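Notes from hallway chat w/ T.B., transcribed later so I don't forget. T.B. wanted the structure written out for a chain they're using in a teaching module, and asked if we could keep both sequence and structure tokens in one place. Agreed to drop them here.
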Amino acid sequence: MNHCWRLLSKGCLVILMGISLISCQQITPSKIHYSYDNGPEIDTSYIAIFPFEKKSAFRKPAQLTRTDLIEIDKILLKFAEDYNKHMLSFISPKDDKSNYLIDLKDYKRQYTPTTNSKGEKEVLIYCICNNSNANWKKERIVVRDGGKCYFMVKVNLVTKGFESAVNGNA
């Protein structure tokens, strides 16, 4: 009987040690992703994809690849860098720079990928401040003012160029 008790207690000890090791593992919540038309995973916490729906002889809908998303980020960073350098030449050193400069991590984005008449993939990107209450994931952004809180960038993924417009203040 004493021998059985020792085996049972050793078995319980092994089980308890196993449970404690398993429970000590760090569990990190996974980010929610969705796939867009069998394309790359899109981080929906800050990007929404809107398909091109207009009838046009010059533009056609396009899909984005993982490589496209990486290139879009590079081009957007170049846009923000250029914009911020330009703004720094106008503002006073006393001014709060955060009121004038663009930090891309502070924006939600809407992407509309298209192919232009030359067959080049272009993406129209609308950016909106994170603090906006707009239903940005389901409705396209349409604003007339708002300053740096709303801006548009059209990127060409072939030429790596961009065109941009930052809204004025009312």
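Follow-up for T.B.: The longest strand covers residues 107-115. Might be a good example for the class.
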